Every structure is written in structure tokens, then in C-alpha cells.
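User: Fold this; C-alpha cells only.

Assistant: Input:
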Amino acid sequence: MRHRASKRLTYLAAVLFLTVLLGACGGRNLKGDFVQSADTPKAFDVTIIAEKDTTFDYEGAPLTAEDLRSALRYRKEESLPVATILMKRGEKQKIKNDHIVALARIAYQMNIKAYIQEKNGEISEIRAQVKEDEAQKPEPKAEAGK
């Protein structure tokens, strides 16, 4: 009887240890796209809200990523400020990776600083990085025969 109880206790201790270990490893939310920015502006030039189907609410109008890019270009043409943009989550919609990728592309292409407001109110900067394609790298030139 004691042997069985000690096996159970050892088994439960091992399960508890593995559960705590998995919780510690998997509990962090690793988002490589976000950087805590020390120079977060007090006010933003443009504020958008993430909506469903990877659309954005900009001044009350639902826009796709292409439409948002066009609206921001129009602001630049009209000499309206568009140096910083903040994306907030909608009332019923979370900010998804598709929203983040679309905004990062727009910000990179238009040379705008993009920020995202987390659920807890924390503001982080989105920074895009360009990957070098293997196909775009120049091939070494073949040496001419001697």
C-alpha cells in the first residue's frame, strides 16, 4: 500500500513540475514585430481601428489595406500630418497578425512610424524588416577562360 502511495506522489510531483515548466515556457507572448519605444509620441497624426476581415476603420469608414494606403497618400498630398499612425483594437475585434502585417507594409512603404495599442493600453512601435531574397542576390560572375 505504501509503495503505491509513494509512486502516486512521485508521479503527481513529476506532472506538477512539467505543468509548471510548460506554463513558464509557453506563457510568454512573443511578438517580434513590436518594440517598446521610449520616444512614443503624446499624440498621433492618424488613428485607425482594427475591424473584421483585415479592414481598418479610418474616420468612420471601413477601408482595406490598399484603400488605407490611398487615404494616407491623399493626406500627404494635401500637406496634412501623417508621420505617426496608431492602430487600436475595435470593440468586437482583436488586432490580428494580418492587421499588423498590413500596417507594417504601409508604414515601411510610406516612411511612417506605426504604433499599436495593446489590450492593456500599452503602446508599442511596429518596425518592418526587409528580407533579402536569395533570387535577388547577384550571382558571382564566371571567370573568363585563360
